[in-house]
Amino acid sequence: MPPKAEERPIRITTAVVIGAGHAGLAMSRCLAERSIEHVVLERGEVAHTWRTERWDALRLLTPNWQSRLPGYGYAGTEPDGYRTLPEVITFIVGYARAISAPVRTHARVTSVRRIDERYLVRTSQGDWLCRAVVLASGACNFPRLPTFANRVPRRIVSLTSQNYRNPAQVAEGGVLVVGASSSGTQIAYELHRSGRQVVLSVGEHIRAPRVYRGKDIEWWMDAVGILDQRYDEVDDIARARRAPSLQLAGSPDRSTLDLNALTAIGVRLVGRLAGVTEDGKAQFAGSLANMCALSDLKMNRLLDLIDERARQNGLDDTVPPPHRLRRTKVDEAPPLGMDLTTGQIKTIIWAVGYRPDYSWLEVPVFDRKGMVQHDGGLIPSPGMYLMGAQFMRRRKSALIDGAAADAHDLSAYLESYLNNRAPPSVGRSGHGAGAGLTVGV
Ligand SMILES: Cc1cc2nc3c(=O)[nH]c(=O)nc-3n(C[C@H](O)[C@H](O)[C@H](O)COP(=O)(O)OP(=O)(O)OC[C@H]3O[C@@H](n4cnc5c(N)ncnc54)[C@H](O)[C@@H]3O)c2cc1C
Predict the structure, then answer these.
(1) Average pLDDT score over residue span 206-222
(2) Closest by alpha carbon to 273, among 156, 413, 415?
(3) CA–CA distance from 387 to each of 59, 281, 352, 378 (Å)?
(4) Which has the closest alpha carbon to 234: 390, 52, 120?
(5) What is the pLDDT of residues 377-425, one digit of tens each?
(6) Is the Cα torsion angle 267, 270, 240, 294 positive or negative in sign?
(7) I want to staple 397 with a disulfide (CB 3.0 to 4.6 A). Which of 360, 392, 401, 412 is the partner?
């Protein structure tokens, strides 16, 4: 008989990192650099979420050069290409190997509790006692679903951007894709190309050209300091953290996949899905034109800023002149409703964002909405830190490219905590000083 939980031997280490995605591994590397003994606990294999929770045709929307992890980067011949899903997995697994990360796979953390001055971390493979814990278990554990999702008629198959894999999984006929950020637009495109009739429900989104003035938009955002903008430099960080991801896709031809590109091939746009009635009628907000105008406005503000910075830095003569995209074209009077009981729509794909899962965290660090409270990744429990959350310390915190600077900063905090020293002053110089921008993009 397996021993009861209370009788299981407890292993002791200094720090436990929960999650072997790129964020947990980046932290592992920074802890090792500081000679802090630690273990990385992973419920599956390294890069588990990329193996199990993404659609097959996904490519990173960030170019290859932009996956810079501590001591590791892109070494291939296509720095401006976009990794396929298998390439992302290979990249992260390669990183774990290169840094000899002390990962324990198939060790699902089932609870974290504070006991005296330490944390007791219980897992499916034994328990750990440690002084510091880093939560790197991911910001996208569950898909977000509106409360009315359960009113969708039973005969319609509901999928999410997390369990959608490829068109073969989707019945012939109509598909309603809900959400027009990067996931929703990519899935809508793929399904349309497979011959399905696709209706795309458009809520708040941020449009961006894939390539601007000859350079990838991510190159510009990196170069002008937008991605390095710090969490304590924006007026409303709560709002900034809720902002959707840029409406971008990575494709070999580096084309822009925006709503104009989708309507040009026959995808039909409707407003934000505001509700589903008891008798199975979808209700769309009448704000489609406004949503698109707002998105165009934000994109143009971003491009204005890029142009200004290019001028200030003497780049104007080295890149093509500024240009603007045509405004997003929408129907004057898009439908405000759709009867979901007619059999026309066979599948709904929800692509309206994700939320983390901290159901195993038994430490009182949650806010009223059930989110882990933190100040730039410092959780209000001694020796506890967060990684990988949206705009956690910098605008790029949830991107692969954001982990290096955040892990550098937070490992310094962690080390000073272990040594009972005053908190370090990190994050301003060298990493993420940014350009002090306040533009809301
Ligand atoms: C669809 C999609 C596309 C994206 N595209 C890009 C992109 O193009 N470029 C980019 O830079 N970023 C992209 N991101 C954002 C980001 O890089 C990914 O979300 C990334 O997976 C986050 O890394 P992470 O290490 O924080 O979390 P994860 O990769 O989710 O890693 C967390 C790990 O923790 C493990 N875990 C969770 N709970 C437990 C537990 N209880 N016990 C033990 N282990 C646990 C998980 O199994 C997982 O391996 C994308 C995100 C999504 C959802």
Answers:
(1) 97
(2) 156
(3) 23, 41, 22, 9
(4) 390
(5) 999 999 999 999 999 999 999 999 999 999 999 999 999 999 998 888 8
(6) positive
(7) 392
Q: Is 347 in the pocket of ligand 1 (CB under 6 A)?
A: no
In this structure, which amino acid lies at residue 108?
R
The token pair that represents 54 in the structure block? 């993404």
What is the band of 4 on the pLDDT scale with cuts at 50, 70, 90? low
**How far, in Å, CA of 385 to CA of 374, rounded?**
8
Mean pLDDT, rounded, for 312-332: 94
According to DSSP, the β-strands at 384-386 and 281-284 are unpaired
pLDDT computed for residue 52 by the predictor: 98
Beta strands at 103-104 and 109-115: parallel, antiparallel or unpaired: unpaired
Tokens of 385: 């830190």
**Alpha carbons 182 and 188: distance in angstroms, whole number:** 10
DSSP-derived 3-state class of residue 211:
strand
**Pairwise CA distance, residues 379 & 375, whole Å:** 7
- Identify the H or E element spanning 301: helix 288-312
Q: Are 255 and 261 in contact (CB under 8 A)?
A: yes
pLDDT of residue 441: 34
> Tokens in use for 324?
């603007």
Per-residue pLDDT for 211 more than 50? yes
Global confidence as pTM: 0.94
What pLDDT is stored for residue 9 in this prediction? 84
Distance 138 CA to ligand 1 centre (A): 5
Ligand 1 pocket, 403 CB below 6 A?
no
**73 Cβ closer than 6 Å to some ligand 1 atom:** no
- Over the Cα atoms of the chain, what is R_g? 23
- The closest of 181, 362, 318 to 262, measured between CA atoms, is 181
Closest C-alpha among 44, 55, 1, 50 to residue 19: 44
Residue 186 is given by DSSP the state: H
Burial class from Cβ neighbours inside 10 Å (0-12, 13-18, 19+) for residue 84 reads middle
Could you tell me which residues come within 8 angstroms of residue 304 by beta carbon, excluding any fewer than 6 positions away? Answer: none
> Half-sphere exposure of residue 236, counting CA atoms within 13 Å on the CB side?
7
Q: How many CA atoms are closer than 13 Å to the CA of 22, on its beta-carbon side?
A: 26
CB 13 near ligand 1, within 6 Å: no
Neighbours of 35 (CB within 10 A): 8
> How far is C-alpha 149 from the chain's CA centre?
22
Specify the pLDDT at position 174: 98
Tokens of 250: 């990575």
